[in-house]
Design a protein that fits this description.
endopeptidase fold (from Nostoc punctiforme); SH3 type barrels; alpha+beta; elongated; single chain
């Protein structure tokens, strides 16, 4: 019995040791770091390093991506970068760089790794006039160049300290129409992180009425947000002529009007044939989530509207039996299809 127990304990010990080894190996595996410059992902020549919270990247990639001229002294291992009136000089391995002749301390020195000269991303980018933010949740670095103040505020909007409109306490400033901001990143379908021209960083609503900022990724997120919100009303009863001022019942156009207004503050006309005059026309082969599909119905050219939900599906209502539902944009519907319009 004793021998058997000893054998079992030994086996258990080996199992625990193997498990600990696996977990230690998994914990030691660094999370990949993604780097974005003005919304475009950079592809460094070597894997970025994260040393005590400081991200190091290949030197040439970092300087050239931000428009800096570069010279390299191989004997002294010194790089000199120039951009406009800025000159940055750094010797690999040193804890100090010189910015326009003035010494600047680095929290982590540059180093050789994977055969490349690696230097601190934040220090170099900010020295060149860019803004750098770190998203720990995704392991992403977002760099916004100083030349990126190309987004205009089109309707007075609050700059906030957090992506939340429920509290007035987080309001930093009111940005009037015509203000310019630099978009640092798209937080989600409803918020942008931005920097103002006087270098205040905060959050703006990304709803279409407030700025002229657009990107493929944001429009996709906003289309998905429309569908997610509309699904809250699945099976809600269909009533022709339902008032758009309530959500107990819908007809096709009151449903579309409510979804766009509540999700993105986009105000559409009440009836489908007037909604079909809004936005821009797109072809069936160009459809994107959130586009509107219009069909003939009730003996009129345009008598029904649906929201394209992606993957050849559409979200709409027209039947007392089905209420709000999702179904295929199939041949039955394509026979009655008239046009598609993009509102975003």
């Amino acid at each position: 019995m004793t021998a058997r127990r000893t054998a079992l304990l030994s086996l258990l010990g080996l199992t625990l040791l193997a498990s600990a080894s696996v977990h230690a190996e998994a914990a030691a595996t660094p999370k990949p770091i993604s780097i974005y410059l003005d919304g475009q992902q950079l592809q460094p020549e070597a894997r970025p390093l994260n040393i005590s919270g400081t991200v190091l990247v290949p030197m040439r990639n970092l300087f050239e991506a931000q428009g800096a001229g570069l010279s390299w002294n191989n004997t002294s291992k010194t790089v000199t970068a120039t951009k406009g009136g800025t000159t940055l000089t750094y010797t690999l391995g040193s804890a100090t760089a010189r910015l326009n002749g003035q010494p600047i301390a680095l929290s982590v020195p540059g180093q050789l790794s994977q055969g490349y000269s690696m230097i601190p991303l934040r220090f170099v980018s900010e020295a060149l006039g860019s803004t750098v933010t770190w998203d720990a949740a995704t392991g992403s670095v977002f760099i916004s160049s100083a030349a990126a103040y190309n987004t205009s505020v089109t309707w007075g909007v609050n700059l906030r300290s957090s992506p939340d409109s429920d509290s007035e306490a987080n309001t930093l400033a009111l940005l009037p129409a015509g203000s310019k901001v630099q978009v640092i990143r798209e937080v989600n379908a409803l918020w942008l992180e931005v920097q103002t021209e006087d270098h205040v960083t905060g959050y703006l609503s990304s709803k279409p009425k407030y700025t002229d900022y657009k990107s493929g990724s944001l429009l996709q997120k906003q289309g998905e947000a429309l569908i997610a919100y509309g699904k809250k009303y699945l099976n809600a009863p269909y009533v022709f002529g339902a008032s758009p001022d309530q959500t107990d019942t819908f007809d096709c156009s009151s449903f579309v009007k409510r979804v766009f207004a509540d999700t993105l503050s986009v105000e559409l006309p009440r009836v489908s044939y007037d909604q079909a005059l809004e936005g821009t026309e797109v072809g069936v082969d160009e459809l994107r989530t959130g586009d509107l599909l219009f069909f003939s119905a009730r003996g009129i050219d345009i008598g029904h509207v649906a929201i394209y939900a992606g993957n050849n599906q559409m979200l709409h209502t027209y039947s007392k039996e089905l209420g709000v539902h999702i179904e295929a944009f199939d041949s039955q519907w394509k026979k009655r299809f008239v046009t598609a319009r993009r509102m975003l």
